[in-house]
Design brief:
The chain has helices at residues 2-14, 19-59, 63-70, 73-78, 80-93, 98-133, 143-166, 170-177, 181-187, 189-203, 246-251, 258-262, 284-293, 310-323, 359-376, and strands at residues 212-214, 221-227, 232-236, 241-244, 255-256, 266-274, 335-338, 346-354. By secondary structure, the protein is α+β, with helices and mostly antiparallel strands.
Length: 389
């Protein structure tokens, strides 16, 4: 390279060009040739290593090689080679131009730093993907923590790049940032609050991806799809998407239906309002008729000396009917009780749990059950309360 530069410099001088400009010209030409050589080396390495990795991944797709190719780790790592090559070859090009040598090496250093940052960032994403592929870890999202590491990574990388360009020590810049801590806190306020809230949500197991949550005032009601540093993404039941800051969920109350989904059943709690004027004591003839017409009451016998009311028999029938249904979880609470009379009649509270927790099936089953219970009211000489002007 040096002999080539000397010959070129001699030729330019012989043509009448000033030695100073001749030096600049031939050094620039040599530097351009070095860059072209480094770019060619980069393409060659990409073709060999990346191409070989892609071929191997298609033939034997394992978790790690697939993730490494997906996040372009090898691509970014190979980009280091031309930067390092040019950095060490530049002194052979700029023999006389000390200023150009320093500037060019600074540019190469910045390029190398950026390539290292992108490689580390890709590795973080690979670890995040590998973590999310584990079924046991899906309930504890790590994306928010990785985003914090990415912010720190690029922030520190930016400080190092600036220190290289201005020729100052990175520690000097970090020390100077202490005076502007308040400004940094303001700039990164949402990220800091989101990180702290994410730690609380994860540590206390308050929220997981896939949870059904409901926020007050109808702000959101649906399934959690993503938890990041600054947002929690919720797909509502009307297929709209709501995004809320994580610290909103920590500072305010919200309802998480995970307990219901993990339990043995989903609760049904409804009232049947009876017309107060139709409540009465049952006669022996009424009891005999009920035993014949209602199979579930065939073996019913009142306690000695007891005269049951038709509402009492109706409550007994409801309990027996619910106990006969396989869809009702008998291991969980099953309560049929009479509440305080109101202007809308006498409420009979029916409280039980269905085994099927899928929303569509749950609504269909409970509707079928209450259709039956409402129709059976007349068998006990009762009437449902219905408001009329």
């Amino acid at each position: 390279m040096t002999s080539l530069g000397s010959r070129m410099n001699q030729i330019l001088t012989d043509w009448g060009m000033e030695p100073r400009f001749a030096d600049m010209f031939d050094e620039s030409i040599i530097a351009i040739l070095m860059v072209a050589l480094a770019v060619g080396l980069d393409y060659l390495c990409q073709a060999i290593f990346v191409g070989g990795m892609q071929h191997y991944t298609k033939r034997s797709p394992h978790r790690w090689n697939t993730l490494l190719m997906k996040r372009r780790v090898v691509h970014h790592l190979i980009h280091l080679l031309p930067g390092i090559q040019i950095y060490y070859l530049l002194p052979f090009a700029f023999v006389h131009g000390k200023g150009m040598l320093d500037f060019s090496q600074k540019v190469c250093t910045v390029y190398i730093i950026v390539a290292v940052l992108l490689t580390i960032n890709s590795l973080l994403l690979v670890m995040l993907d590998a973590y999310n592929l584990k079924d046991k870890q899906k309930n504890r999202p790590l994306k928010g923590f990785v985003q914090v590491l990415q912010v720190i990574l690029f922030f520190v990388g930016g400080i190092i790049v600036i220190s290289v360009l201005i020729g100052k020590s990175p520690m000097t810049l970090f020390a100077g940032l202490g005076a502007s801590a308040a400004v940094l806190m303001l700039v990164f306020k949402d990220s800091i609050l989101g990180f702290v809230a994410g730690v609380q949500l994860s540590a206390n197991d308050m929220l997981r991806i896939g949870d059904w949550i409901a926020l007050p005032n109808g702000l959101a009601n649906g399934t959690v799809e993503e938890i990041t540093l600054n947002t929690v993404k919720i797909r509502n039941w009307d297929e709209t998407i709501s995004t809320v800051p994580p610290y909103t969920l920590v500072n305010n109350s919200f309802q998480n239906w995970r307990g219901m989904q993990e339990s043995g059943g989903r609760r049904v709690n409804k009232n049947i309002y009876l017309d107060m004027m139709t409540l009465k004591f049952c006669t022996p003839e009424m009891l005999d008729t009920l035993r014949k017409e209602v199979p579930l009451m065939a073996d019913y016998q009142p306690s000695e000396g007891e005269v049951p009311t038709n509402a009492q028999l109706y409550r007994i029938y409801i309990e027996r009917y619910l106990c006969s249904l396989p869809v009702v979880n008998q291991d969980m609470d099953l309560i049929v009780s009479q509440k305080e009379p109101t202007t809308y009649g006498v409420p009979i509270q029916v409280y039980f749990f269905l085994r099927n927790k899928v929303w569509k099936e749950y609504e269909r089953i409970q509707s079928d059950i209450f259709d039956h219970l409402l129709v059976m009211v007349q068998r006990f000489d009762l009437k449902l309360y219905q408001y009329s002007d």
